[in-house]
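User: I'm writing a tutorial on reading structure tokens. Could you give me a worked example: one chain, its sequence, then its tokens, then a sentence or two explaining what the tokens reveal?
Assistant: Sure. Here is the example chain.
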Amino acid sequence: MKQIIAMGGGGFSMEPDNPLLDQYILKQSGKEMPKVCFLATASGDSKDYIARFYQFFEQQPCQPSHLSLFNPSTRDIESFLLTQEIIYVGGGNTKNLLALWKEWGVDKILQKAWEQGIILAGISAGSICWFEEGVTDSFGEGLEPLRCLGLLQGSNCPHYDGEANRRPSYQRLIATGQIQSGYATDDGVAIHFIDQDIHKIVSSRPNAQAYKVANDGKVIETALPTSYLGMEI
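And here are its predicted structure tokens:
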């Protein structure tokens, strides 16, 4: 079973006092103490970001670790990543993330991990990266389309309600054919894919949602059923 959990925003880095999304990710492993590896590549392996990852996950039932491409702890990256149960990708510059992954061969390792059933998860850049295309601010001013890993079909736009220009920019890019139809996620929302299908959409905020955004002669935005985790036992 191939699983990807793509978060538009939220998690330990955006909602340090709201553990709902990250706890959902941990539960999907089915393990009592799953191995969780953090890739902070998109942030340039920010020491503060990595420290916040450990600050949260060391309090959870899991075995946290991280992989830095700027200061690798192992020469055998493939073996290290393929022993994990969950690989969690942080936010930042998606273009740089993809460039470094390709240079180090991490892109191919992550595809192998996905095919072997290791859960891939991530926020923002760590959500966009799994799709064929994503909307990114990696180039500086403005939002532009970016070709990504293509494990999931279609395009992705995170922070749909969290940044004022996300919704209009995504819809404009779809309307003009600069990016293909896809999924948008509000901050606090995660789409859980099994293979290419949506298994479940969950949120850490009561009114946050995910959307299908498609070009059918005109742009059509369809809200998708989203379960608020705060209501679940």
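What the tokens reveal: DSSP finds eight helices and 14 strands in the chain. Residues 135 and 170 are 7 Å apart (CA to CA).
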